[in-house]
Amino acid sequence: MVVAITGATGFVGSKLVDRLVADGHEVRILTRSESKAREAFPERKYPGVKIGDESKWAELIKGSTGVVNLAGPPISTRWTPEVKADIKNCRVAVTGKVVQAINSAPKDERPAVLVSSTAVGFYGTSETSAFDETSPSGNDYLAEVCKAWEASARRVRRGTRLVLLRTGIVLDGEEGGSLGMSLEPSLFSRTLRNVKYASTISVGIKMYHSCSCVPSLLK
């Protein structure tokens, strides 16, 4: 399989690249900083991995089996108006560019699937309700981000299957995961002082891998 990935230098994306390379798939990294990506994925360790900035996205997406869209700045920071705008605008813009590249590819070279990351923030928050895929969207800031993010992905043309993965906080002890950060005593009290519960996922990237590489799920 040939898989193109945005957000490959992020915590989840880097794990996915490792898994895909280990399984013998061809990986194409779509990045906004080619130098950063080449530093993260050196040729000696990742032979055959193709890396390209935005000017090369269309070329790298063309002929791919699937595209995994993970790009977006982290939300675990202080939400100034500028940060909030960047959180939303970056996700919507990157997804739009990916969709445009897919839609402009010749039909016989168009990816079979677009796996686009989104978040459980789509549903808003509640201290009494559990949400599933049939639940309506919320109306807070993160819900609005997710709705705009998903709407951008839904513009992909018929013929490319769309998978929207609404995930939660990545819970992992390694650098980049929320568990390692939250277990710092000084951070723990600040992080959880007003939080009763939160949706989490492990760093396991099997769902992204399966959606982009298992033939029966590409249809």
From TrEMBL:
Boundaries of every NAD-dependent epimerase/dehydratase domain copy: 3-141
One Pfam family of this chain: Epimerase
Chain ranges passing through the membrane: none
InterPro entries associated with the record: Epimerase_deHydtase, NAD(P)-bd_dom_sf
Domain of life: Eukaryota
Protein name in UniProt: NAD-dependent epimerase/dehydratase domain-containing protein
Gene3D superfamilies tied to this protein: NAD(P)-binding Rossmann-like Domain
